[in-house]
Specification:
9 strands; alpha/beta; eight-stranded mixed barrel; binds ligand C2E; binds calcium ion; 275 residues; 50% helix
Length: 275
């Protein structure tokens, strides 16, 4: 019989060329997508658990692929990061989100902040802060109505410069949220030195809350931590009324998930939430 290594090789090697070709194809198509304006943003409502009122929107990127239909970001964001295209996509999303927020507020949407996901390759660029400020200025969006979402793992690289960057953003009034909280390895001591507004509790915890186990203790602890740092808490992936009930009982402030809404096109969001 063949050794473990050989078997692995036999399984792995025939796939490799196809996988990299597919990736290469995706990469070149993504370059074109930017020029052809195939990328667009959808917006998922965030609501207060206490009374269900709209408190924010998260902007999420979509790609209308000419042959494949709408491609989810999980499939192309990693490719974009590796191909050096993430900055261009990030710039597009930042601009689009600021402009859309201004349009929606003018059309009667309550003046809630829009949250934009920031990739590592975007945050680390020297011109990130000026870029944000320039998008705010050209769109006319008030800084307090923009929130940037960065993941916990992004915090741990280049600690000192991240601390000063986040402080600079918040000095200008921009809000900062930590995305997917609980899935990375951020040091608790260091969390207190960061200038933040919100912790977004990862949807894996919300899912785990549905069965008996350690998730409840973990979520309780995260909420206590957030309180002591005076941070807002938002739970992601809230799909069931029971999820919302449990999170409310645990003292979580806000929620986002299919129970309330899927990410929506601007027109659909307005139709539902304009006042
Ligand atoms: P994320 O930032 O954690 O975004 C939340 C994801 O959960 C979104 O997936 C959203 O559609 C999905 N979601 C919302 N409610 C529920 C729910 O109740 N149940 C479940 N199962 N899922 C729910 P999406 O839009 O496919 O985005 C996936 C990831 O791609 C995002 O995760 C984020 O990491 C990345 N992403 C999306 N848009 C952007 C962007 O503009 N820039 C960057 N850098 N990353 C983005
Ligand atoms: Ca996010
Ligand atoms: Ca998240
Ligand atoms: Ca995520």
């Amino acid at each position: 019989s063949r050794s473990e290594g050989e078997r692995r090789l036999a399984v792995y090697s025939p796939r490799q060329p196809g996988a990299s070709l597919r990736r290469l194809t995706l990469e070149s198509q993504l370059r074109l997508a930017l020029q052809r304006r195939e990328l667009f943003a959808v917006y998922q409502p965030q609501v207060a658990l206490a009374d269900g009122r709209l408190v924010g929107l998260e902007a999420l990127v979509r790609w209308r692929h000419p042959e494949r239909g709408v491609v989810p970001p999980g499939e192309f964001i990693p490719v974009a990061e590796e191909a050096g295209l993430i900055a261009a996509i990030g710039d597009f999303m930042l601009r689009e989100s600021c402009q859309a927020a201004v349009r929606m507020h003018a059309a009667g949407l309550p003046p809630v902040p829009v949250s934009v996901n920031i990739a590592t390759g975007q945050l680390r660029r020297a011109d990130f802060l000026p870029q944000v400020l320039s998008e705010l200025e050209s769109s006319g969006l008030a800084p307090a109505l923009l929130e940037i979402e960065i993941t916990e793992s992004m915090l741990m690289a280049d600690v000192q410069s991240t601390i000063s960057l986040l402080a600079a953003l918040r000095e200008r009034g921009v809000r900062v949220a930590i995305d997917d909280f609980g899935t990375g390895y951020s040091s608790l001591a260091y969390l207190g030195r960061l200038s933040l507004d919100r912790l977004k509790i990862d949807q894996s915890f919300v899912r785990d809350l549905r069965v008996p186990g350690p998730a409840e203790g973990i979520v309780r602890t995260v909420i206590a931590l957030a309180r002591s740092l005076r941070l807002n808490t938002l739970a992601e992936g809230v799909e069931q009324a029971e999820d919302a009930e449990r999170l409310r009982a645990l003292g979580c402030d806000d929620a986002q998930g299919y129970l309330y809404d899927r990410p929506l096109a601007e027109a659909d969001l307005l139709a539902k939430y304009r006042t």
